[in-house]
Amino acid sequence: MAHYRRVGEVPPKRHTQHRDPEGRLYHEELMGEEGFSSDSSLLYHRGVPSAIVGSEVWELPDQRRTPNHPLKPRHLKLHDLETGPDAVNDRRLVLGNNDVRISYVLTGTDHSPYYRNAIGDECVYVESGSGVVQTVFGVIDYRAGDYVTVPRATTHRWVPAEPSQLYAIEANSHIAPPKRYLSRYGQLLEHAPYCERDLHGPTEPFHLEGTDVDVLVKHRTSAGIVGTRMTYATHPFDVVGWDGCLYPYTFNVEDYMPITGKVHQPPPVHQVFEGHNFVVCNFLPRKVDYHPLSIPVPYYHSNVDSDEVMFYVGGDYEARKGSGIGLGSISLHPGGYAHGPQPSAIEASLGVDYFDESAVMVDTFAPLDLGEGGLAVEDSAYAWTWSGRGPDDPAVFSNS
Hints:
The chain has two helices and 27 strands. By secondary structure, the chain is mainly β. An eight-stranded antiparallel beta sheet has the order 5-27-7-8-15-10-13-19. Strands 6-24-23-26-21-20 form a six-stranded antiparallel beta sheet. A hairpin with a 2-residue loop joins strand 16 (about 210-220) and strand 17. The protein is globular and about 75 Å long. It starts with a strand and ends in a 24-residue tail after the last helix. The relative contact order is 0.20. Mean pLDDT is about 95; it is low at about 395-400.
């Protein structure tokens, strides 16, 4: 995210002496992406950011994945998924591949442990609830409709003010605005559906005192994704100032300006972020197609390179009437399968000029497996709802 910010006390020149009122040097840390060749920030710590006094195994939540085989579309009912209240430890894996993992948790009001994802950036969609995320860069508020984007290796913890439904998109890469929205220098362009004013990062440093502070670190090994509990000699939230273009921020869907057209627009116009081998889109309340013969719901389509994951979070999703899909549902439409609206929804949409619907979509360019959380809440009748019958005839559908 190449939008410069400066927070707290920093010296006039980088990599020069910066001292506290008693004359003690602050410790400068560079957090930088792609081997010093991309976005970075400089943070100034009171303590030594490398000083650990312990390192133990942290047993991660179940990360096992089951291939979508035999191939079929899936409906997962996330509101039926039981989780513990911890925003980090109690995430349940819903879908995933080697590029991105999607998890879900309903929190309580206790803070999470201190946590750092050293595998990739996280983009957490807040389905409901509010609170703050305390980070080494400072504090950011969150509310329903926010994407909370946390860069790789940022120490943070979730502090909910109320129970919060969190849909966590964990990348193996960085997450950023689509390149087509950006100038060659990184500014969001006029045709982009949002701008820098809509991105809300920390505004002041955040300090906590403490010694022997545990931080849960998710990281990679030759054996796959693992966890380590590192114990730091001094509190990691000891930064007096920082500046740069790398930091956590929130973006709320209310600030996204949908792009519409005379006939039905393809999903890329709804894109909000991209990562390596996946994109994030949001479908929001909007005026729809105004050609006199337009069909407002999507045409049937074969996304031959992608698996499509739609998370339905608000409104009344016109194209899915008769499928059993409702709020809190996920639909997985895999590559190799043509998908689209329920047949009855096509005629019903004619003449409609406004859709009141909200959904978050993740399209991946590698096949998605099902996590244990997804398997636990699958509606097994969904695949047969377009035809009205399945292997067991007559089929009994979730919306019957």
